[in-house]
């Protein structure tokens, strides 16, 4: 393929695939070389992203499929649900799409998670490609094969592990991303520091202003390192038997905030930002890290424009929502904690301690 781009491979045996990171990838037909050609290519996107990048992508795909069609979903986390997922199936069936049909997820994590789940289910599995257009999706959700929809009782409760054939992260798409969404994406970038790479945490601290100003080199490096860490984790533990849980740092608190407030009130990245502050505080109360680590992460989350205190909700509904977390075993809450800077693990935690942390961070 011509043109400057960076690439790395996620090593999963017969399910291995490449992640390409570069400018203008969506419009470059050669970025799709080697992917299956078929009668139908179905672009799943939403009503915000379709007018921005839909046509561009359709042109790049025109030579690959006799028919390139779009399924345009309503935008937002509130629509990551059964009725919206069904719209994808309705379209595939109405157009007599067969099992060679390729689905293309064009958008952020919501579109990516739903398209992946639809691909896993339609005719028991059709190929799909991730085309992430948010920072969050480029550093996290497009990689690793977790696909899902939400349930009112809990985030991502209905889903499947199903890997894409390729990930194309087009850096140019980040130019149109609203600032609040950029901050949300930074939450998942920051996450990789305390759990896996203290040097990367230092790099983020030093380069946060450049990232927030969208300097292309800084963004490319943050995306590359984030994907490397995620590929390293998922390559060892695709289905979260153990190690992969570290990618859930901040998510037990974060998912509870999202569910209790109502999906879409706080963005996923905002809830994870606040959740990481609570999770490092929990780590400190367990005697694993010191106050300096708590202050360091809190300061970075704050600088990234993310909340560090809980929204005005009572603790009980949050605890209830946390009991639904996928890491809970035999009714026992389990949290990802930082064990030392750059290293994380999973611990069963007493509910009393969790309540103390919630109280310390109440609005
Ligand atoms: N599968 C995983 O491993 C994984 C990892 C992290 C998060 N997630 C999931 O991802 C979702 C969050 O993803 P997200 O933060 O990308 O949110 P999102 O998909 O809702 O996208 C954020 C907003 O940005 C808009 N948008 C997307 N690309 C744009 C662009 N280039 N220019 C302008 N606007 C654009 C979207 O329409 C939306 O309004 C959550 O549902 C979360 O649970 C999944
Ligand atoms: O890829 C993973 O594994 C993650 O945990 C990444 C998270 O950022 C992401 O939000 C994921 O969807 C959460 O997974 P869940 O299993 O807690 O729903
Ligand atoms: Zn996440």
Automatic annotation (TrEMBL):
Cellular component annotations (GO), alphabetically ordered: cytoplasm
Note on how the cofactor is bound: Binds 1 divalent metal cation per subunit. Can use either Co(2+) or Zn(2+).
Keyword annotations of the record: Amino-acid biosynthesis, Aromatic amino acid biosynthesis, Cobalt, Cytoplasm, Lyase, Metal-binding, NAD, Nucleotide-binding, Zinc
E.C. code: 4.2.3.4
Binding site for NAD(+): 75-80, 109-113, 133-134, 146, 155, 173-176
Compartments (UniProt record): Cytoplasm
Any one GO MF annotation of this record: 3-dehydroquinate synthase activity
The reaction(s) this protein catalyses: 7-phospho-2-dehydro-3-deoxy-D-arabino-heptonate = 3-dehydroquinate + phosphate
Pfam families recorded: DHQ_synthase, DHQS_C
CDD domains, per database record: DHQS (cd08195)
Pathway the protein acts in: Metabolic intermediate biosynthesis; chorismate biosynthesis; chorismate from D-erythrose 4-phosphate and phosphoenolpyruvate: step 2/7
Domain 3-dehydroquinate synthase N-terminal: 71-183
Required co-factors: Co(2+); Zn(2+); NAD(+)
GO BP: amino acid biosynthetic process; aromatic amino acid family biosynthetic process; chorismate biosynthetic process
Main location: cytoplasm
Keyword RNA-binding: no
UniProt KW NAD keyword: yes
UniProt xrefs under InterPro entries: Dehydroquinate_synthase, DHQ_synth_AroB, DHQ_synth_fam, DHQS/DOIS_N, DHQS_C
Domain 3-dehydroquinate synthase C-terminal residues, every copy: 185-328
Binding residues for Zn(2+): 188, 251, 268
Function: Catalyzes the conversion of 3-deoxy-D-arabino-heptulosonate 7-phosphate (DAHP) to dehydroquinate (DHQ).
Similarity comment text for this entry: Belongs to the sugar phosphate cyclases superfamily. Dehydroquinate synthase family.
Protein name in UniProt: 3-dehydroquinate synthase
Organism: Piscinibacter sakaiensis
